[in-house]
């Protein structure tokens, strides 16, 4: 589960052997949406899922901070997808700004660097930062063995 503002999101991988699995699932989801006031997106996989393996790829930590608004997570994910950078971890939370109480959203994303430096990663996000008026910074993530 990932918190997105005052909402949360959960990814679920469902499989089945019946030819009607997709149709059965779609029917059940429509009922769940109506009964529980949820929004559910279904999409078939293009290929069979593979087991996630630890990456030897150097990792970068991306941090976006700004007034909570729609589109921050989607915009960050889109830029990373365009560069085929894998997201290893994504966390977000909202907290009130001191004195004003304005909701401030902080997004932290751990990505495989794919030969990209922290400075280059920040440059990729300059248009997103300007459009959404959020501060986006990147830093090297220490290796798990680091003390």
N→C terminal distance: 29 Å
CATH fold-level topology of the largest domain: Alpha-Beta Plaits
Question: H/E order of the elements?
Answer: EEHEHEEHHE
Helix content: 25-40%
Number of DSSP strand runs: 6
Question: What is the architecture of the largest domain at the second tier of CATH?
Answer: 2-Layer Sandwich
| Overall number of structural domains | 2
If strands are numbered along the chain, what order do they take across the biggest sheet?
4-5-3-6
Give me the secondary-structure category: alpha+beta
What is the CATH superfamily label of the largest domain?
ACT domain
Largest sheet: 4 strands, antiparallel
Rounded to an integer in angstroms, the radius of gyration calculated over CA atoms is: 18 Å
How many separate helices?
4
How much of the sequence lies in strands comes to 25-35%
Tell me the overall shape: flat
Stretches where pLDDT falls below 50 for ≥5 residues? 143-147
């Amino acid at each position: 589960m990932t918190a997105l503002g005052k909402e949360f999101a959960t990814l679920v991988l469902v499989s089945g052997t019946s030819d009607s699995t997709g149709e059965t699932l779609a029917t059940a989801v429509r009922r769940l949406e109506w009964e529980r006031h949820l929004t559910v997106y279904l999409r078939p996989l293009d290929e069979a899922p593979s087991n996630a393996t630890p990456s030897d790829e150097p990792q970068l930590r991306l941090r976006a901070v700004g007034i909570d608004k729609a589109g921050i997570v989607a915009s960050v994910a889109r830029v990373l997808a365009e560069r085929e950078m894998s997201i290893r971890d994504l966390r977000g939370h909202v907290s009130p700004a001191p004195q004003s109480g304005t909701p401030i959203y902080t997004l932290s994303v751990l990505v495989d660097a794919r030969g990209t430096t922290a400075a280059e990663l920040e440059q990729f996000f300059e248009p997103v930062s300007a459009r959404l008026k959020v501060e986006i910074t990147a830093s090297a993530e220490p290796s798990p063995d680091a003390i």
